[in-house]
Amino acid sequence: MKLYEKHRLEIILERMAADRAGRVLEGAGVSGYTVLPALAGYGGSTKWRRDADISATRDMVVIVAIADRAEIDAALDQLQDLLADHIGVLNVSTVQVMRPDLF
Amino acid sequence: MKLYEKHRLEIILERMAADRAGRVLEGAGVSGYTVLPALAGYGGSTKWRRDADISATRDMVVIVAIADRAEIDAALDQLQDLLADHIGVLNVSTVQVMRPDLF
Amino acid sequence: MKLYEKHRLEIILERMAADRAGRVLEGAGVSGYTVLPALAGYGGSTKWRRDADISATRDMVVIVAIADRAEIDAALDQLQDLLADHIGVLNVSTVQVMRPDLF
Amino acid sequence: MSMALDTLTSPIILFFALGLLAALARSEMTVPEAFAKGLAIYLMMAIGLKGGVEMAANPLTGEVIRAFGAGIVLSFVLPLVAFMALRLTSKIDRVDAAASAAHYGSISIVTFVAATEVVQAVGLMPGGHLVAVAAVMETPAIITALLLASQAGARKNVAGSQQGELFREVMLNASVVVLVGALIVGWIIGPEGFEPTKPFFVASFQGVLCLFLLDMGLSAGRGLRQGWRQLDAGAVTFGLYMPLISAGFASALCWVLALQPGDAALLITLAASASYIAVPAAMRLALPRAKPAIYLTLSLGVTFPFNLTFGIPLYLAMGQWVGA
Amino acid sequence: MSMALDTLTSPIILFFALGLLAALARSEMTVPEAFAKGLAIYLMMAIGLKGGVEMAANPLTGEVIRAFGAGIVLSFVLPLVAFMALRLTSKIDRVDAAASAAHYGSISIVTFVAATEVVQAVGLMPGGHLVAVAAVMETPAIITALLLASQAGARKNVAGSQQGELFREVMLNASVVVLVGALIVGWIIGPEGFEPTKPFFVASFQGVLCLFLLDMGLSAGRGLRQGWRQLDAGAVTFGLYMPLISAGFASALCWVLALQPGDAALLITLAASASYIAVPAAMRLALPRAKPAIYLTLSLGVTFPFNLTFGIPLYLAMGQWVGA
Amino acid sequence: MSMALDTLTSPIILFFALGLLAALARSEMTVPEAFAKGLAIYLMMAIGLKGGVEMAANPLTGEVIRAFGAGIVLSFVLPLVAFMALRLTSKIDRVDAAASAAHYGSISIVTFVAATEVVQAVGLMPGGHLVAVAAVMETPAIITALLLASQAGARKNVAGSQQGELFREVMLNASVVVLVGALIVGWIIGPEGFEPTKPFFVASFQGVLCLFLLDMGLSAGRGLRQGWRQLDAGAVTFGLYMPLISAGFASALCWVLALQPGDAALLITLAASASYIAVPAAMRLALPRAKPAIYLTLSLGVTFPFNLTFGIPLYLAMGQWVGA
Ligand SMILES: Nc1ncnc2c1ncn2[C@@H]1O[C@H](COP(=O)(O)O)[C@@H](O)[C@H]1O
Ligand SMILES: Nc1ncnc2c1ncn2[C@@H]1O[C@H](COP(=O)(O)O)[C@@H](O)[C@H]1O
Ligand SMILES: Nc1ncnc2c1ncn2[C@@H]1O[C@H](COP(=O)(O)O)[C@@H](O)[C@H]1O
Ligand code: NA
Ligand code: NA
Ligand code: NA
């Protein structure tokens, strides 16, 4: 089956900022994204764990969006701004998809 | 350490169809897969959120399978059929693994 | 926006061994990692499902770490040892990031 | 009238309204899915147990058997009516109409519980077997809907689908297993064996129901906010008049079968209620092309609130009127 | 003295201590987040309902209105005091100080509940409207903190932020919706309508609180273990003396406004308590650069345990002393 | 005989059977893990509190100390017996046999609770300290199993393992922390302090247990469906006769130590029961190469159902027979 090249944006982000990242992606014309819950994490010297903190303030999520490179590029500037304030990191990779028109 | 090339199939799919996708993968000879829960998502103009809908009908999951390209190719035809009916998207990427015989 | 090449390590691992993998990564100098819960899975001939087993002994997690290749290489030896005993598989892929100094 | 007001100011309705308003005002608050699902299991265990214990205390009369028959017939037939009504009065397509119709032939156990409270409040004593009737009404509607959809050529085997998976989803889902299972347990243990579990299953029931209805209000409100754009005026109107049509059919049947007023009121309520958990899940497997936004918005966003507030007092009046 | 001992040997304190010790001993045990969140909703519903039912039974007197006024003033003013204290006595920077100050102007509903038990145990009958005062005190502190932070230039619109999102988070969070909503429900249904839900919301309350406090102990202990390195001695001391300052302010106000001893004791407790759920969430949106490790460790790790054990008996004594 | 029948028709057994049958019939229904874990914490708190309150009311006699001694000895020794039995009668390898043996030396708290109900139903009053004995029996078996496995060279330090992690998992897991902690709390607060929490921890207990056992049935049934292929006939038989051997050992010890019949019945039950939560977790850390499919299927799929249905009446009879 013929596959087509697209890109996969993955943002590891504090849960409270997930809606903001979503709005940035929507604004950049990304056709869809999915948010996954995280369970625990480590960064620098601190750790967090979902069930261990009743305030849930440090919960992280992972946002995955499959999209055209152009849309991801359109989002990156604003995401950099977002990640300057909010806790998180992002990465982009190349993937192959079946129906390129969907993205 | 020497690493070997394999492929990573990622299917973002409605939860109710996860067992069907699993059967397709098993049928194609994929050696294993893991299903992750999603928390929320956006596609086109609609959004969903896990805790926000008591019917849980729109919950999505993410299925990850590390496998040989041949097995993934064997699964793709049927997955295209599956994704024609069920809500979801998939992507394939190239990864490196330690013990190639495991996949 | 200029992006920089880093690597993405993904370990699909039994939950009980997640802390051990975390210590290995910390020891190798990885700057951070995030642990995601899994919901279900298949490997060889057996399946597991999170809500289906009160002992939760077979729960899996997915650990994602974005890092320099050197740090990942430093971790791989010990991870191979870990995965010889514990249930799990790992893969490494190439990704692009915005602020390379963070990793 | 005063009873309608009583209904509207009962704590469960008020908590439902609270959830609905919070969701419409775009509050981000949620009840965690795992917790809500646990509460749902509790509620079904409690209902099943109570029904079974009552059945153990009462002989299986002809009326009981007639009530089962009526429930099964209604669940098979009402989807036909709903399907035709939707096709005539809205722009919803054939597959979506079939899927929605299945919801209206099936039942809502929370609507049933709320009606039980109201029926008991006026001194009627509905039989415990109505719980079993409710369980029996969950399924037949799905069969009718699948027949309707297969005429449209909508059913075929999706890749990876398996012989029996739909059957298991429909006949062995949580609601059937727990409801029927608890009913049988209640029937075996009887009033005496039930006693030690009563503080949990009986005394706490009303309170848990309040908490659960808060969550249902949140779900219904969010469904409305997300889904109303998918519905034309015809569809929304359907969500309001269809329960009345169903109630009409059920009333006629209750009259013919000479059911007692309390049983009649509950059977009418079951007929008028629409599923929003079991049937949607079955539809995702059986008719994945049908759009959940349509059938969920109709059953959870339109019909459920209508039944809870205005429907139930009406169905009680109808039950009293046609009841033997 | 003996009352302080009574407090320290009450089951809720002991379960809190159990959780705290387990976390400090590095036990891996947790209460699942979904379950704990469900319990929190239960607790707020129960508190709101009880408060509303009591309010329905009592007329809205001038004293009630004065209590509301006092609560709002305290919530607006205390963050200023807290901010200055932190800046003077610790090395915490401006933005972190503003964020922490918001926590101290706002309230802890669990501290409030624990105080209510103690106050009732000595025979005082605080009014149900104190629950509403608690709800009203959640928010103003956040406004003050944002003003303090904006002076430092810390507030600007983060990418993707939306008009109204902070307002919704602050005014429509779970705690406000459920507390205020249940209060209104309780007020509408009154004692009679409340009756059937009492086994769940009243009789089970103490037990659920024990379970919840076990989880709070685990959270507080883990917060301490993770966060204490971020705090200098000045900051930790602040977490201990700030509640006393707040209590002092509140006492003066209670005396001026001639509140009754029970109401005074609770208002003093509210002033002395610090938020650890609603305000941290709001701060992540409004002041994302402020470090959660600082404000959470202070409010949940230092102030909450202090209030629960030594604070409450003291605030009761103060309330009795200044109360009319 | 009639008591065996009573046991088999108690609601908790019937709900267990319901879950087991549903899982064997391949129902997809589940109880969410977070909810089930919350219920487990509730159950352990309730058991611990009740035990502690009873201990507060009774002096620590010599018999109490003898019961502790018996529990510790049994937990140390039974894994040896289990290990040898498995090696002799099944094809299970050394490491798997050691890991499985640990489960049989340790205990199942739900089996203990079910037995307590039955023992009290015949009018015996077992001491509250048996809860503490149960807690004490969780751990020693793990030590024996590790010694057995290390002879096979199976233990070595896995990468990333840490000094003390196994100790924390074993000594500070949820079950030990909550059970022992609640016991101490109950012991401190005594009957009077326990009173306000009784509606939650005592009155609701039976009902929650029903819900929990539904989930245990689901787990056991699924474990059986998945795991039976890993077990040869010898292993399955072991899951049925090993509890009887353990019960025999325990009976002898009870007779020697002249324990009272109620205490004896419970100690015999503890000896005969096998762990399915705490020990499996410890084994994943300590002996990761041992296959969970084997030890979980044995303890949860074979031994637990056997004990719950046929075992407990037998252990009661044995307790009455050897008891002083
Ligand atoms: N390099 C990384 N790879 C994966 N996750 C990360 C990484 N760095 C940070 N995180 C996640 O972000 C959280 C906060 O990181 P930090 O702000 O560095 O403490 C961590 O607890 C992880 O969940
Ligand atoms: N391009 C995408 N990348 C990631 N997730 C997606 C994408 N498109 C759709 N999804 C997921 O699929 C769900 C349904 O999409 P849709 O059918 O387009 O409404 C969304 O809510 C997302 O969770
Ligand atoms: N190739 C794979 N890709 C993704 N997940 C896998 C793979 N192999 C194994 N797993 C995960 O690891 C678990 C245990 O695998 P196994 O030890 O092969 O039974 C499975 O249930 C999956 O969750
Ligand atoms: Na219906
Ligand atoms: Na305060
Ligand atoms: Na044992």
Task: Describe it.
The complex is a heterohexamer, with three copies of chain A (103 residues) and three copies of chain D (324 residues). With 103 residues, chain A is an alpha+beta fold. Chain A has a single domain, classed as Alpha-Beta Plaits (2-Layer Sandwich). Chain A has helices spanning 18-27, 69-85; strands at 4-14, 32-37, 40-43, 46-49, 60-67, 88-97. In chain A, helix 1 (18-27) runs antiparallel to helix 2. The longest helix of chain A has 17 residues, at 69-85. The two termini of chain A are 18 Å apart. The model of chain A has no long low-confidence stretch (mean pLDDT 96). With 324 residues, chain D is an all-alpha fold. Chain D has a single domain (31-200, 222-322), classed as Up-down Bundle (Na+/H+ antiporter like fold). The two termini of chain D are 23 Å apart. Chains D and E meet through helix 2, helix 3 and helix 12 of D and helix 3, helix 10 and helix 11 of E. Strand 3 of chain A pairs antiparallel with strand 2 (32-37) of chain C, so a sheet runs across the interface. The complex binds adenosine monophosphate (3 copies) and sodium ion (3 copies). One sodium ion (NA) is lined by residues 78, 104-107, 246, 271, 273-274 of chain F.
